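Incident log, support desk, overnight shift.

02:14 A customer reports that sequence design results differ from what the structure should imply. Their input is reproduced verbatim below. On-call engineer (initials T.W.) acknowledged and began investigating.
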């Protein structure tokens, strides 16, 4: 087994006892297992005080039961660190489940896992010494340059997992766990399960999208738009001071129908159900994995206290504390950052208004495509803003966590997750919320427009509707996130590793191995956290606005197939080894997934109700259209919808009609909304539509949430086989206690063996027993 210190056996002696005999003693001495390496830059360390602190730190480690070995090259000095067997035995005893070994009996010697050894060494190195220094303090002061666990025994992962040709092969989760620990293994198990569950969502989304193609030329609404040569649309901005025929938007109308059709509602409900089933099925898969790893009864606080006692016999756990003043300050600062994120959406609004005027002056050849250019460039600007705000959000979230003073690292990670994800959510989705629910609704109407600073007219939706703007924004941001970000995520560490590896390693095998590990890209505490965050944002794009972008699950599926191997190659080939951490679930991320699922129901309901043309089409069909009295085979039910959905504005009411090109030949123009042509107030259709939209939103959300609740109830979180296995283990522990106490308790009779399965007994309680 990987990670064993030595092979031991029981050998009889003259006295009849069975002492442990080291089989390796009769062979060539095995190479020492060094788990951790500290690096010193000999060129930078000229201060005698730094050398003294270095010596004191190493001596204290030695006094605690750790061994170290020094090796050096021309520039660096390396110190290999490993824990003594006594420390490892102490950890085994502290973490050993209760009553697993009979008292007074000799237990079979067990080896400690390499991941546990590294975790112990890392915990002690990061803890305070007698002088009050931690390894981080010494690195900051230049005493050590860096410290990291060593890669060793990773060849099997390179062959089976960390290569592109294994993209469609099953992940070796158990091997990942043996090498990187349970936390990393659970991340890849979750990512693999998420990718697997994306297949049905991608297929259904593709079918919904292709169903629009089947009616690409058959849609009555698209036909009317393409034939509307005599309908002129009102000028939409200062950059476009002429009337435009509605038929000029024929191609956009057909494209909009690809993702704004009757299948959109069904797909949104399907995705609400899919998100719930995905989470419930993942909980079941996690339960199986944790049971297989024998971590069902593992406790994180006990692990933390065991490591603390190993490091210091006088260790006392930090007690739980709460400060209402500190929590209030953190809440206010978080709200301030959220307001800043929302303000960034306003920056995007200002950019789009100014860009429209600038493109019209500097790029006159764009003509009618100025609006499309503004939408595309706005999405690119938003992507750049996301990259900048990600770094700012991470810094702010870390500072807020430090101010909150969490008790343990796990608690700090959980609080950091909540704060960072909240800020990232608003950074990524604020512009989408603006486009979906605000764009084109606050800019007034022809003849009475709202202007920015009294100069520039606010931007309106595309002539084919706001769904086109939302679709383009989603496609560009998600496309860039899945392509450009992944390329940079791989190329940056790959190029850095190639550059750092230009120098040949030492001829000494051990020193050369340490040098190769040193030249890998460094990792930090939240390296795995960044991978989780990237997937959570993608999950948000896949579910929250999926009604406007049915291809989101398909893009996510392709991206995840690449992401799994990309992360594997980074962790095994390009980066230093992550410090293994134990875990039995994905922590706070599970709550984040559940929150995203609820937000997805609300957002998709609002998109269908207020952004899509679904509700106006249905209302027209059953209230105003030719089919209001019943279906008619000779006429399409949507005949006349385009004329009904466009309001009339008389060109004589423009403030400066002479400046509008072609105004002398046009007496009225049309625009998307429901206003009265006489007094420019909302028409009766507007208020009726608003009532239907609100009713649909309430109905949709309640139906979707009920489906989610029923699915969550119908699919148990933990499989019955896992529950029965846990029950059997509890029963076996009780049987073991009973057998140990038989002599003292005076029990008689054969009884049941301590490790037998459930016996058939008349004493078994019935379901009605209390």
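02:41 Re-run completed on a clean worker. Output:
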């Amino acid at each position: 087994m990987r990670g064993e210190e030595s092979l031991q056996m029981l050998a009889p002696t003259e006295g009849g006892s069975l002492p442990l005999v080291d089989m390796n003693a009769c062979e060539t001495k095995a190479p020492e297992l060094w788990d951790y390496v500290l690096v010193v830059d000999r060129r930078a360390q000229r201060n005698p005080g730094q050398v003294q602190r270095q010596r004191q730190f190493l001596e204290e480690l030695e006094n605690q039961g750790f061994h170290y070995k020094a090796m050096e090259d021309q520039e660096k000095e390396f110190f290999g660190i490993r824990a003594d067997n006594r420390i490892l035995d102490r950890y085994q005893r502290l973490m050993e489940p209760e009553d697993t070994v009979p008292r007074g009996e000799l237990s079979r010697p067990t080896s400690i896992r390499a991941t546990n050894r590294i975790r112990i060494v890392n915990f002690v190195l990061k803890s305070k010494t007698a002088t009050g220094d931690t390894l981080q303090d010494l690195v900051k002061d230049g005493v050590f340059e860096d410290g990291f666990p060593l890669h060793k025994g990773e060849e099997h992962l390179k062959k089976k997992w960390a290569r592109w040709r294994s993209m469609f092969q099953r992940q070796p989760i158990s091997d990942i766990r043996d090498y990187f620990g349970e936390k990393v293994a659970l991340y890849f198990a979750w990512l693999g399960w998420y990718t697997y569950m994306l297949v049905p969502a991608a297929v259904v989304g593709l079918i919904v999208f292709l169903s629009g193609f089947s009616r690409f030329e058959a849609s009555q609404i698209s036909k009317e738009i393409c034939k509307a040569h005599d309908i002129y649309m009102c000028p939409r901005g200062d950059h476009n001071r002429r009337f435009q025929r509605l038929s000029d938007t024929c191609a956009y109308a057909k494209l909009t129908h690809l993702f704004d059709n009757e299948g959109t509602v069904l797909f949104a409900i399907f995705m609400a159900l899919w998100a719930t089933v995905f989470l419930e099925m993942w909980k079941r898969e996690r339960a199986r994995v944790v049971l297989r790893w024998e971590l069902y009864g593992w406790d994180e606080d006990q692990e933390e206290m065991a490591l603390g006692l190993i490091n210091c016999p006088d260790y006392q756990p930090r007690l739980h504390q709460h400060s209402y003043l500190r929590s209030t300050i953190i809440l206010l600062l978080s709200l301030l950052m959220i307001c800043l994120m929302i303000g960034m959406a306003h920056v995007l609004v200002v950019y789009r208004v100014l860009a429209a005027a600038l493109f019209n002056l500097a790029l006159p050849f764009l003509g009618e495509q100025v609006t499309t250019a503004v939408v595309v460039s706005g999405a690119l600007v938003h992507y750049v803003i996301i990259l900048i705000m990600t770094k700012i959000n991470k810094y702010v979230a870390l500072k807020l966590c430090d101010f909150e003073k969490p008790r343990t690292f796990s608690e700090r990670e959980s609080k950091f997750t909540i704060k960072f994800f909240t800020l990232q959510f608003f950074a990524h989705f604020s512009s989408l919320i603006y486009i979906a629910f605000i764009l084109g609704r606050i800019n007034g109407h022809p003849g009475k427009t709202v202007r920015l600073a009294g100069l520039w007219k606010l931007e309106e939706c595309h002539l084919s509707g706001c769904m086109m703007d939302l679709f383009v924004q989603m496609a560009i941001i998600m496309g860039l996130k899945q392509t450009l970000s992944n390329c940079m995520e791989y190329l940056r560490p790959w190029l850095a590793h190639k550059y750092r590896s230009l120098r040949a390693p030492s001829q000494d095998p051990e020193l050369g191995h340490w040098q190769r590990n040193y030249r890998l890209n460094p990792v930090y505490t939240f390296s795995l956290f960044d991978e989780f965050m990237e997937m959570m944002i993608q999950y948000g794009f896949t579910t929250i606005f999926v009604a406007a972008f049915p291809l989101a699950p398909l893009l996510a599926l392709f991206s995840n197939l690449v992401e799994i191997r990309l992360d594997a190659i980074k962790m095994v080939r390009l980066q230093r080894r992550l410090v293994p951490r134990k875990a039995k679930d994905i922590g706070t991320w599970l709550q984040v997934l559940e929150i995203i699922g609820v937000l997805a129901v609300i957002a998709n309901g609002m998109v269908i109700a207020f952004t899509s043309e679904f509700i106006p089409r249905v209302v027209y069909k059953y209230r105003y259209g030719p089919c209001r009295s019943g279906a008619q085979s000779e006429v399409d039910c949507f005949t006349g919808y385009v004329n009904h959905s466009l309001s009339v504005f008389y060109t004589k009411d423009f403030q400066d009609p002479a400046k509008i090109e072609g105004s002398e030949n046009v007496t009225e123009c049309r625009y998307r909304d429901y206003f009265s042509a006489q007094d420019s107030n909302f028409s009766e259709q507007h208020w009726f539509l608003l009532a239907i939209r609100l009713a649909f939103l309430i109905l949709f959300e309640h139906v979707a949430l009920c489906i989610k609740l029923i699915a969550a109830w119908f699919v148990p979180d933990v499989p019955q086989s896992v529950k029965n296995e846990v029950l059997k283990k509890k029963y076996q522990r009780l049987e073991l206690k009973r057998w140990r106490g038989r002599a003292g308790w005076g029990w008689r009779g054969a009884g049941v063996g301590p490790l037998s399965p459930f016996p058939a007994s008349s004493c078994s309680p019935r379901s009605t027993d209390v």
